[in-house]
Structures are given as structure tokens and as C-alpha cells.
């Protein structure tokens, strides 16, 4: 008897044709909802662009579902297009993504400084611990050095990454302590302050714009 359950789970395994049909039906419902809510002539330029993008996604998903039915496997392309569909319909998600992009743009200088700081200490640790047990374990290559120092900035591998050098000489701990003190308690806080300040300015500008529109609407109503 064939087992139709997912491994390590009691949930039934869905057939490829079923998942493809579900994707196509959901997309048909979303397209109908958008066509019912808006009319093409009343749409703005961004709404028309999202509608065209949704139509392209629907055609690709339909072709992927038909191909999956013929071959007998689960749709592949449709799985990667689901986040795009969610972004098209969820206005709040688009707003949050734009806010994240603006935060990254405003904080680009601080982020570049942090990466340069990590690169400097990774390069210094590679030559400082060369030929020692610490070097062969955590600083054997520049890539491995950068990887360990990047994780150290989050304190996820502390103090494990420091212990081999600390057992060799207690003075080696100053290298890691200075990195954490300056990087974690100064640079990361500067990054947080920049993000918070820019976010506060954008919220204030949004509230001011909303108040201006509200006052203008009141003036037009009474005039």
C-alpha cells in the first residue's frame, strides 16, 4: 500500500495536480477581485502596472500548472511567484518594503563602516594568530576570519571563538574585547539611532501631509 503522508508528519501529501489547480483557482479569484474592485479607466498608473504584472504571473502559473499535470510533479515556478502575488495585493507589505529600502539607503554609510570595521579586524586576526592554534581553528583563511568576526559582532559565538587564543595568552582577549566594545556598543547603536531618526522624520512628514490634506478638505467643504 502506497504511503500518502508526508515524512515525519501525519499530514496527507497533496497530489501535484491538486496544488496546481489550487494555485490557478486562487489567482483567478484575485484577478476577479481586482477587476471587480477597479475599472481599467479608473486605475492609476501604478494600479495598471500591478494589474499587468498580476496577469503575467497568472499566465506563468497556469503554464507551470499545466506542465506539472502533464509531467506529474509539483509546480516549481509557482512557489517562487507566491511572494510576488502577496506583495501586489498587500499594500502594507509594499509600504514596509519601501520603508526598509529607505532605511537601508539612509544608513548605507554606517553599514559600510561596520563592514569595513569587521574586515579590518578579520584581516588583523588572520595575521595576528597565524601559526597558532587559534589561527588554524578560526582564522585559517580570510573568508573564515571574516565569517567568525561577523558572527562575533552578534555575540553568537562568544566566548568560544576567543578561548583558544585566551588559553595561549590572556592578552589576546583584548583583541576580541575591543572589537565587541567598539563594534557592538558603538557602531550598532549608531546604526540603530540613524534608522530610528530617519523613521521618525518620515512619520512626521506623513502626519503633516495628512493634516494638510484634511485642512484643505475642510476648507473646500465650507467654502
Offer a concise description of the structure.
By secondary structure, the protein is an all-alpha fold. It has helices at residues 16-37, 45-71, 77-89, 91-106, 108-128, 133-138, 142-152, 163-168, 173-222. Helix 1 (16-37) runs antiparallel to helix 2 and helix 2 runs antiparallel to helix 3 (77-89).
Write the layout of secondary structure elements.
Layout: H1 16-37, H2 45-71, H3 77-89, H4 91-106, H5 108-128, H6 133-138, H7 142-152, H8 163-168, H9 173-222
Helix pairs in contact: 1-2, 2-3, 4-9, 5-7, 5-9
Integer-rounded radius of gyration: 27 Å
The oligomeric status of these chains comes to single chain
Q: How would you sum up the global shape?
A: flat
CATH architecture of the largest domain: Orthogonal Bundle
Helix-strand topology string: HHHHHHHHH
| Mean pLDDT across residues | 78
| Unreliable spans | none
What's the CATH first level of the largest domain?
Mainly Alpha
Number of strands: 0
Structure description:
There is one protein chain. This protein folds into two domains: 16-89; 106-222, Helix Hairpins. It is built from nine helices and no strands. The protein has helices spanning 16-37, 45-71, 77-89, 91-106, 108-128, 133-138, 142-152, 163-168, 173-222. The radius of gyration is 27 Å and the shape is flat.
What key phrases describe this protein's structure?
223 residues, Helix Hairpins, mainly alpha
